[in-house]
Design a protein that fits this description.
binds iron/sulfur cluster, binds tryptophan, 10% strand
Length: 367
Amino acid sequence: MAERIDPWGSVLIEDYSKIIENYGMESFDEKILKKLPKPNRLMRRFVVFGHQNLERIVDAIVNKKEFAILTGIMPSSEKLHLGNKMVIEMVKYFQEHGGKAFVLVADLESLATRDISLEDAEKRALSFHIPAYIALGLDPKKTVFYFQSKNKRVRDMSVELSPRLTINEYRALYGEPSAPKIISSLTQISDILFPQFDKVKPVVVPVGPDQSPHLRATRDVVRRYKKVNFIPPSATYHKFTPSLDGSMKMSKSNPKSFISIPEDPSKVGKKLMSAKTGGCETIEEQKKKGGKPDECIVFEMFKQHLIEDDNELNDIYKSCKGGKIMCGECKKKAADLMKKFMEDFIQKFDKAKKNVDKLNILKFECE
Ligand code: TRP
Ligand code: SF4
């Protein structure tokens, strides 16, 4: 049995096939890939490694049926990371294929688990997190935003659903229960069902594997809740972006190996220049034997984030293996691309920030 995934902790994941097995996911394979119209980069390259009931979303896309996409932002630090970027790329894909997107600010979760006041959470979300999501590609015109604390229907439903999960089941899914964790989980389960409150429909939630307990809990609760015939949520799971030093997941606790969004464009390149590669000790040796792109963080950055064109990526792969390119020039290329990404992000962010007052943020009567 692998480590339990704890949404509030950090566990390294080394073997994604084990995760699929232990957590009741389906593998994201050629078969499902073929069914998705114009799959995005993360899908084509199997950075998306697992899913739940994605067939249902494929059916909605292909047959032009109504469906929704939902994701949440924790308004804690004023930094995003490359995992958030992947979530938004997935939201964007489904949005472009006819889904209605919902993005919530998890201000009750940040209040319960990080002691961030609702006022602070609101300020941060409006001045940073929401414009940042838009800068990453979310279409603001087609997105509905809400704050957990202001969504009375979500809060009421979290209370109503509370008897549908026993403490023992909770423990099996999430580890040791605590009041803040329980409140946050019930709220998140309710968030995931929110797009179905007025009318049941397929909903897809793109997440990293750390959020899988919430999806499993939601699917368990839906089965027991008889008043409404909610459709169990679908999910896609993408891999973590490895740390530049080669460990499995980027973590803020190791700033030299962590790329946050945004980051000073003039400095971010330096970090990439120090990334762990799959190169050899000497240039002579590498020319002779070739490098190992499969074990190279720089290549992983190209694959997950920096190079859109599959042919270009393949060329690098082959040139690396054939000893035709060396790590120095390769890292330089990654550094330049990352610099460009940051410049582009900052520009889009400034523009999005000026337009926050035009967003569709749900207002509720909470009194
Ligand atoms: N727990 C999520 C996080 O840590 C935030 C979140 C709240 C969320 N509700 C959600 C994510 C619903 C996806 C779907 O970032
Ligand atoms: Fe990685 Fe590029 Fe070096 Fe190959 S040449 S090991 S892809 S940095």
